[in-house]
Amino acid sequence: MSRPQLPRGFNAWVATSVGSELGSGVLAFALTWVASGHGSQVASWVLTLTVAPSVALGLLGGAVADRFGARRVMIFGTLALMIVSGLLAAAVALWGTPPFLLMVTATLIGIVAAFHRPAVGVFPRLFVADSSVLGAAMARAGMAGQLARTIAPPLGGLLIGVVTVSGVALVDVLGCVAMLVALLLIHPPLTQVPAAEAVTLRGVVTGVTTARVTRGVPALLLCVAIVAGAVIPAVLLGIPLAARERGWTAAEAGLTEAGWIAGGLLSGAWFAWRGTATKAWRPMAAGPLIVAAGLGLLAGSPSWPVAAASTTLIGVGVVIFTAHVFPIYILLAPPTMLSRFQSLLILVQQAPQLIVNPLIGLTVAAVGAGPMIAASGGIALLASLVVATDKTLRTSTAGD
What we know:
This protein is mainly α. The protein has helices spanning 8-36, 40-68, 70-95, 99-122, 134-159, 164-185, 201-213, 217-236, 238-246, 250-274, 281-299, 304-332, 338-367, 369-389, 391-395. Helix 8 (217-236) runs antiparallel to helix 12.
């Protein structure tokens, strides 16, 4: 299997996204950590408010990207994130970090993400004409994000004690500036056909109904919802709460959280370099099994080094799963509905969190972080069952 060749502009965008994702990741960790200091309920609400606007506005965000183009939406989204981070830095300098400010910031970030993320998800498709290398392109973009998110939690744990949330927000501003410049200079070789009817109620509904009747798509969306609902809250919210419960420092919690990103980076690097498996259903089914094993180990981890090893295993399983799910999903999408299909994919990743996040706060307060994380591992196993029993997924390949 030869190394996939990708356009220079794509590689430049991927390189720049490392800095942008690093700034966002550092800020996300800082917000969650500071919120956890106000109690498990505040922490769960901050994470929920980051997600809720994307769930409410995500389908509209995908329609906007189909109508006006992914690159244009990404430019305005990056500019908006830069403004939010700048305002947060000023507000923290004036008023500190009361829960209300953390919740407002989380809500604004979620609103911008509702429009920004569907566009980012389809951007690699505009650089790749050959569908056989799309998996490598998406893995390379994902690897850049994984690299940044690996560094972000421990860096956030260190910075929060040195420059406070205000300084961390300014780091995010710098990342946004770099990405904004890159987007203004880079023009993808493929043209995204505008869908004039996308930003209408009929256009949004058509995107949903088309996905519902496209073979393989409902099963893929269900699998992603299961894995996201099991992993994301258990890692992003469970680790800070478990760290405080077990007496770990902010830096140790950051290193533990970085483990799942580091594990994803290791497996993502392989797929970015060599491409994804032709018979995709096998790694799609294996990924959740590895995730469940990692969550089970994390639930009983007595120390942060053991927990970091556990989260590394989780990261490996997640990327083995997503590196094969995401390319097949985007290949199943009609050319004029790429962003609307992508917004559905994001929706099913985030919607479960609206239910799970508040429940985590209540569960941890009642029985502790360990049982909650263990239960998440059991839920992840269901995704393997869905993959193994769906005929379309078992016969799908990267070149379909």
